[in-house]
Amino acid sequence: MPSNSRTFKVTHSAVNAKFSTITPHFKAGETASKTPKDCPKLLTMNCWSCDSPIKRSAIFCQSSYCKTIQPIDPTKSYFDVLTGSKKIQNYAQMQSTWLNKAYDTLKNPLSRAKYILKLKSKDIKEEDKATDNDFLFLIMDLHEQIESSSGDDKSIVQVKNIIKDLISEKTANLSLLFAQNNVNEFYNKTIELQYLYRLMNSI
Question: Could you tell me which residues come within 8 angstroms of residue 146 by beta carbon, excluding any fewer than 6 positions away?
């Protein structure tokens, strides 16, 4: 069924052009009252983590030893954000993309472990092989259980629960190895964790 509605594409330049016309008007002799954001004392705040003084517009604490992400500035309106320079908007978008990628990477135990190893200059590839024979026998046994459980939902759930427990156990082991700075063993256990995730994804 045809629609009479029209679709409009809103661009940053169009928004900026529109908002640039929204300016206050005063009669002769009138002056604008001083707003809170004009007060120098309100242009800075303290980092919630280390208490260092920082700009309200800062996304991260500027302290060299902190660098903690900061809350959104409550004094900023949507107009402040959308009428900013193109450069500021680009930086804000880059920060948002970077933070989302960081969150997605660190929330998953496998991608988090791989990232830690990358920082240690030890990348893991998909084809990297586990070397622990007991672990490899366990993976073979789980493969056989998955194949024999085809069409049996109850058995599949049981196998999934076993793999989930193994992933939790391996993740806890990685946390301990990280605290010990045992990079080589951390590398080996991350490969095993990769096997478990690959097995889980195959179900």
Answer: 156, 159, 199, 202, 203
Q: Could you tell me if residue 28 is inside a domain?
A: no
Take residue 112 and report the two structure tokens written for it: 């988090």
Give dist(CA 203, CA 50) in Å, integer. 46
pLDDT of res. 59: 74
- Cβ atoms of 187 and 174 within 8 Å: the answer is no
| Model confidence pLDDT, tens digit, residues 15-48 | 444 444 444 443 444 444 444 444 555 678 899 8
126: nearest Cα among 201, 198, 203, 199: 198
* Span of 71-75, 124-128, 180-184 with lowest mean pLDDT: 71-75
* Cα 186 to Cα 90, 176, 183, distances in angstroms: 38, 9, 5
Question: The pTM is what?
Answer: 0.64
Residue partners of 106: CB distance under 8 A and separation at least 6: 112, 115
Does residue 38 lie in a domain region?
yes
| Angle CA 37–41–47, to nearest 5 | 100
Residue 131 CB partners (closer than 8 Å, separation 6+): 188
Q: Residues 179-201: pLDDT tens digits?
A: 999 999 999 999 999 999 999 99
Tell whether 66 and 125 lie within a shared domain.
Answer: no
Same domain, 117 and 182: yes
